Every structure is written in C-alpha cells, then in structure tokens.
Amino acid sequence: MSLFVLYFGTDRRYDHVAHHEILLGPRYRGLLDDIFIHKRLAGGFLLYLHRPTAADPSLALRAATAGTCWRRCHIWAARPTGSARPGPYGMRLCYPGQATQRSPQEVVMLAPTKATSRTPRASTLSPRQRLRRRVLLGAILALEVVMLGYAGASVMVAMALMAPNPSPRPTTQTPAAWGLLYQTVSFPSRSDHLLIRGWLMPGLLPDGKQTVQRTIIVVHGIPGNRSSSPVLHVSAALVQHGFAVLAVDLRGHGESAPAPRSLGEFEQRDILGAVDFLQTGALPFPLLGRPRVIGGWGMSLGASTLLLAAAAEPAMRAIVSDSAFADAAALVRSRSEQQGLPSWLLPGAVPAGQLLYGVNYDQARSVAVVAQIAPRPILFIHGTADSSVPIANMDQLVAAAS
C-alpha cells in the first residue's frame, strides 16, 4: 500500500476549489450515505489521521477542547481564546469499535472561525430547547392560520356587502299603471360613464298642459328600483301638482349597469349624470324645452345619495330627504350587529372591500357635506319606527345642516 503526495502549481486561479477538497470515486457513495444520512459508521471503517503537532507542538492553537469517543465518534468543538490568528480544522479521531472504557480515544477539533461558525443542529439541542422550538413553530403556524382565516372571512364579508348584485330586482310595473305619460330614457353617469336608465314623466298643469319646467329626480332605496310602489306613488303625486319627474335606477339596481354597492360614494355620480342629461341630453319631449329648476326626492339610499350629489352640484335647487342615513360606515356597523355579524370582522372587511371594489365608506358620509347645500332648502322626513335607519340619523343631519 502506497501514498503518493503530489505538489503542483498552475498559472491560473481555481476559485471554485475549496481550501481542502477530497475527490472520491462512485464506490464511496454508499459509505458516505451511511455516515452523513444514516448517521452510522461501518465497523471496519478506516480513518486517516494527520497530526502535525506530533512533530511540532507549537502548531496547536490554545484553549482547544478535548472529548472522548466510545462506540460512535463524537466531535466536540470550542472557540479558541486568546488567539488572534484563526486556524484550519485539525482532528484526532478514533477507530469505531476500538474504544473501551479503560482506553478511551481522544477527539480534538480546533474551533471554527467566526465566519464559518454555524447554528447547532437540532440533534445537539437539549430537550428543553427542542420543546421551546416546537412551541415557537406551533405558535407561528397557528398565527398564520388565524391570519389567513381572518383575511378570508374579511373578503367574504366585503363581497356580501359590496359585490355587484347578480340578480337585482326586475322592473315589475311602469308609470302607465298609475295613469302617467312617460318615456324611457338612458344616459351615462358622470365621471365613470355607466349606463343609467330611467323614466321621464311630464308634469300636468291645472289647464291640462304638460311641462318639464320644474323637474324632480326621484331616487329609490335598497333594494328597490324605479318601479317600486313608493317611487311611483310619489311620482304620481308630483306629476299631478305640475312637477315633471325623472325616476332613475341607481347603478346595480333595476335595468342600470351592474356595479359594486358603495352606499352613495359611486351612486352619486348617477344623480349627477341625471342632472347632465336634463341640462344637455336628448330629452324625449323636445317641444317642452328643458327644465328651468331641478330638485331631488330620495328615499333611504336615494336620499343619502341625493345629499352627496347636491353638495357637489349647485344646479340642484332643493332636496326632499326621506329616511336618509348620515354615515355609511356607521349604518353598516349597526346593520351588522342587527344581523348577528361579529363586529371584529368589519375592520378587515372594510379595507378588503376597498382593495376589491374601490369602495371607501368614508366617502359616503352625507353628514359631513350636508352643510354645503345651504342656503338651498332641504326637507327632512323620517319615521320614528324605522329600524333599518334609526331616526337618530335625521337628528345628526339636521344638526349638521343647521
């Protein structure tokens, strides 16, 4: 048996080659798998030992730590102290199976430098450390599950509150059922240009002539549309008193374009589009001219939406607000409590809705803008037995408008 040591030099660099590198043939694969994967050493395993300190003790670093080896070879490491010059690894290993209690074999490993030090493997941790690690990992996993669950629930609530209604209530009757002359009209909403549909009904003067000089935009509530009986009842009364009526379907309702439900933030654009239509659109009664005065009559959502629109559009000269809510976010919280929805879901549902649909309930606070309508008149109407929109909403609006 011979050992050949070759000393060589080259005219180029090989940076991918480590400081110490051993090249082994395929016959060593099974042996290395036993050592590094299965954690066992063969009984006849032979180790080559290199101990330069046998000839020169000054090569050893100070404060190295020694251990013992019995059946399996354990390597103990410690950081040298008082040494300014880090050194390479040096090992003194035993033959497995040869160590006995009377004659243990020493194993010495010089400590790694700071740059090559690594976190101890899980197998070297104490039982208490392993328990702490499991508890920490379990807590992190549980927190991730809770956060994902909360995010999913928030998205579901946001969809229930704001997603476009897949099956809005159909139109069930027309003004003809109330003996009213009308024409179906359509126009784009202001800014985002969604298709809005409605009915234009001329007013009747005492002499029987028709007129559109004073036109009232009548807006339904949730979940109705322009064919709802309250809308047609009010429309018929206005027409009989000489007011023309433009009854509209808000977006996402009736025959208008589907859209997210924003409780007034986006719906006010439909009212503003109605104003634009009356001022510049192609009216179905050209011989009657254009409106000289435009007002609004809204119910619930329609009333809040009219207040938001009137604050932004001075062409609306007067508003009748029937059961308007003052703050969309407060209304959602109140309705959620009535329906048994956990209140802790709303803080996640509101931003989820903003990400999914762009809805921001803070932009649907008619109480914050109602004062801008002055000095134009507002008539507030509210029922004391209203459980969906409590009468306290009217008190807030009146106080803010005063």
- Please state the average pLDDT score: 81
Strand order of the largest sheet: 5-6-10-9-11-12-13
Distance between the termini: 108 Å
Count of runs of 4 or more consecutive helical residues: 8
CATH fold topology of the largest domain: Rossmann fold
Task: List the helices and strands in order.
Answer: HEEEEHEEEEEHEHEHEHHEH
SS class = alpha/beta
Helix content: 25-40%
> Rough shape?
elongated
Notes on the structure:
The chain is of the alpha/beta class. The chain has 3 domains: about 5-50 and about 65-75 and about 90-115, no CATH class; about 125-160 and about 330-360; about 175-325 and about 365-400, Alpha/Beta hydrolase fold, catalytic domain (Rossmann fold). The protein has 8 helices and 13 strands. The chain has helices spanning about 30-35, 125-160, 230-240, 270-280, 300-310, 330-340, 345-355, 390-400, and strands spanning about 65-70, 75-80, 90, 105-110, 185-190, 195-200, 205, 210, 215-220, 245-250, 295-300, 315-320, 380. A 7-stranded mixed β-sheet has the order 5-6-10-9-11-12-13, with helices on both faces. Helix 2 (about 125-160) crosses helix 7 and helix 4 (about 270-280) packs across helix 5. It is elongated and about 130 Å long. The chain starts with about 30 loop residues before the first helix and ends with a helix.
